[in-house]
Each structure stands twice: as C-alpha cells, then as structure tokens.
Design a protein that fits this description.
With 184 residues, the protein is of the alpha+beta class. Helices cover 16% and strands 33% of the residues. The radius of gyration is 19 Å and the shape is elongated.
C-alpha cells in the first residue's frame, strides 16, 4: 500500500529559514526541522468523524458531490475541527452534509487508517425524517433499508465496514464498539 505523505515544508513557518530533514536529538524518527530556531514539524494523524444516522429501520446515506469518490454513497463524515469533541465534530459534519440535526449516541467504530495518517470515528445517531436540504457536499441523500444498500457504490472501505457492523449488531440486538486497522 502506498503511504500518503504529508506535504513537506521548504521553509520554517516560525522564522523562514530553510527546513532540513533529519532525526532530532533524542527522537526516534526522521522529521523536518529548522536548524536556525529549533522548530520541529510533527506530522500527526487526522481525525475523521461521522455518524450512522438512523431513522426507524433505515440508514441515511449521502451521495458525494466532491472528490474523492464523487457520485458514490457515504455516511456523513469529515475532518474534525479544532476545539470540538469527537461527537460534536460528527454531529457538525452530519448537519453540514445532510442539513439536519442528528441526536448523537454511542461511539460505534474506531478505524485506524495508517497509510493515510487518519483515524475514523463513527457514532450511532438518530434522525426523525429524511432531510430535504442537503449541504453542498451532497448531491442526493436517501434512507436505505438493509436490503437496499448500494454496496457496489459505497465510497470508502471504512464506510462499508461500519455499515456491515451496524447491520450485524442490529440483527444480534445490541451494538458494541468495533475497533480495527485498515491496511488497504
């Protein structure tokens, strides 16, 4: 699997001096650093937060209006913002992409995606009806029963796996936390 690299700094964001790539003293990894002011650029994982919005016995999916995976179905999710909790970010992303307020529930899946430097967090959520005003990132949205899910048109492996766990847990009558690592 090809690792998705973060962009490299050419110049220090603190002092403007050229950055170098080497292992800082007392560190275990090679990093970008500034030899003039000592700034070290750490590349940390990006949290992706979202929900499994449930209305009765159906799940709300959004058809993506943007790349990547434009035109495919997804759960409402996106990058967490500064100064919000995981759940606050998941509910914000749901509101932005669907145009509706969801009531947040339990953390449902935690998926490490190391090749993309991401961690995906999905929460169970409740909605009361099909939203009518999706956001600009959504072409179309629809409530799907399990037998109607367009499995061959699901956008991301993390979304597919979260949906599979949702329906498995629903059949068993209880929802548990699922944590795993995605290597492809």
């Amino acid at each position: 699997m090809k690792v998705i690299e973060a962009p490299l700094f050419k110049f220090c964001p603190m002092c403007g001096h050229p950055m170098v790539t080497k292992r800082p003293q007392d560190d275990v990894r090679v990093r970008e650093l500034c030899e003039a002011c000592g700034y070290i650029h750490y590349v940390n994982p990006i949290p992706v937060v979202g929900t499994v919005p449930v209305c009765g016995d159906r799940v709300l999916l959004c058809k993506r209006a943007i790349e990547p995976q434009k035109g495919k179905w997804t759960l409402p999710a996106g990058f967490m913002e500064a100064h919000e909790t995981l759940l606050e970010g998941a509910l914000r992303e749901t509101r932005e992409e669907t145009g509706t307020e969801a009531k947040g529930g339990q953390l449902f899946t935690v998926i490490d995606v190391p090749y993309a430097s991401q961690i995906h967090f999905f929460f169970l959520a409740e909605i009361t009806q099909l939203p009518t005003n999706p956001g600009p990132e959504t072409i179309e949205q629809k409530l799907f029963a399990e037998n109607e899910i367009p499995w061959d048109k699901i956008s991301f492996t993390t979304v597919r796996t979260t949906l599979e766990h949702f329906f498995e847990d629903r059949h068993q009558g209880s929802f548990m936390l699922h944590q795993y690592r995605l290597d492809d």
